[in-house]
Write a structure and sequence with these properties.
With 394 residues, the protein is an alpha/beta fold. Helices cover 26% and strands 30% of the residues. The strands form four sheets. Strands 1-21-20-19-5-2-3-4 form an eight-stranded mixed beta sheet. The protein has an eight-stranded parallel beta sheet with strand order 6-9-10-11-12-13-14-15. A hairpin with a 5-residue loop joins strand 19 and strand 20. Helix 5 packs across helix 6 and helix 7 packs across helix 8. The protein is globular.
Length: 394
């Protein structure tokens, strides 16, 4: 169990990354789950002046990371959820800077998905001690059999609005994102249904043409999972799914920031095309995240992890999620891709919060938002984590 080492009012002095830019002599006043003040230290209101303080002159305070696409970690998979597994996954990723996340499922039989929804819903009904589960991301089962990736093709089905309506009725607001192949029968109607219910409609594991993606965007499609992976590639005469994702600003693009799934140069190109409001860092982490090389599973498929790279054991040419953490992904965006601290933070925190409709609550360091705060050192390594205004130690 992580220990809460502060839960009363606290002042955090140091460099502070805000939506308006970097404050080099900044301060954050945080207590009772909430940020009360963010700004120049010299303008700190007198009401907070006597609060206990922490001075990190060379430290950098940034908002907690928001990961909308993560399958597990610390040896556990969201597909086999129970309270112990959910504690282990959220604790590990919280120790790596993730303060909000979506429990991401795999393509599976309906009863297996039902069980995940039941367990996550029950977990969210109590106080969550680590990273906060904002809901569930269904990655499938409404995908293309031509691009299953590390999903089990035996469980792929056409989009089913009856299932979506049943889940939304039984667990209102729990499903926050659904990944599907927009070219498949019934997908456009499902996309329209999802958007009417405030759920992110994301393409992924898709054989769609450029035109089919544009048609889906007109129906409400607004996100793409793990850009460039498990989708039709860019060709100068057939722009494919990747070309549509790159060019259509109605579509936010998730990117796995490990340098394995996508070359840094391609991430840089995508970042320039999407701008700071449409790029999202994800981990796509599976159960091996935080552990050593070896044999694991993603969903019900065997995985072999070698030198931190996860591939399907029976199809080693297929990547099977990642062992990435958000703090490593943040450093990758800054140090390998060349994004600014601010742009990388937007991709890792604010834009994912926007995708969840939670930007008024999380995603940036602003007064009135939840006290989800990270302290980094000069090399962008993680030093401390605050969740709901509480500093945790792991």
């Amino acid at each position: 169990m992580a220990e809460i080492i502060s839960n009363s009012g606290e002042l955090l002095f140091g460099k502070v990354l805000t939506p308006s830019g970097l404050i080099t002599n900044g301060v954050i006043a945080v207590s009772s789950e909430q940020i009360h003040y963010v700004g120049e230290a010299q303008w700190l209101p007198t009401a907070y002046a006597e609060w206990p303080s922490t001075h990190e002159k060379d430290g950098l305070f940034i908002p907690g990371f928001v990961d909308v696409h993560v399958h597990g970690g610390a040896g556990h998979d969201f597909m086999y959820s129970n309270a112990e597994a959910l504690d282990a996954i959220t604790k590990f990723h919280c120790s790596q800077g993730t303060t909000t996340m979506l429990a991401t499922t795999m393509t599976a039989p309906k009863d297996a998905i039902d069980q995940v929804l039941t367990e996550v819903d029950a977990y969210r009904s109590q106080t969550m001690p680590f990273a906060q589960l904002a809901g569930v991301h269904l990655e499938g089962p409404f995908i293309s059999p031509q691009w299953p990736g590390a999903q089990n093709p035996e469980h792929i089905v056409l989009a089913n609005i009856d299932w979506l309506e049943e889940w939304e009725s039984k667990y209102p607001g729990l499903i926050r994102q659904v990944t599907l192949a927009p070219e498949r029968e019934g997908a456009l109607a499902a996309i329209s249904w999802l958007r009417k219910h405030g759920i992110t409609a994301a393409l992924g594991h898709t054989d769609a043409t450029y035109d089919e993606v544009i048609t889906a965007a007109e129906a409400g499609l607004n996100q793409a999972v793990h850009a460039f992976n498990a989708m039709t590639p860019l060709h100068h005469r057939k722009p494919g799914t990747a070309g549509a994702v790159m060019g259509d600003q109605r579509i936010r693009a998730e990117i796995i920031g490990d340098g394995i799934h996508v070359h840094p140069a391609v991430v840089s190109i995508l970042a320039r095309l999407k701008g700071e409001d449409h790029l999202m860092l994800i981990t796509d982490a599976m159960s091996a995240a935080g552990l050593s090389d070896g044999e694991y599973k993603i969903g019900d498929l065997p995985v072999l992890v070698q030198e931190g790279i996860a591939t399907l054991k029976e199809h080693p040419e297929s990547l099977a999620g990642s062992t990435l953490t958000m703090i490593k992904g943040y450093r990758f965006l800054v140090q390998e891709v060349g994004l600014s601290l601010e742009a990388a933070s937007r991709a890792a925190s604010l834009i994912p919060a926007v995708s969840l409709g939670l930007e008024r609550t999380i995603g940036s360091l602003e007064a009135g938002k939840r006290g989800d705060i990270l302290l980094l050192d000069h090399s962008l390594h993680l030093c401390d984590v605050w969740v709901n205004g509480n500093k945790l130690t792991f």
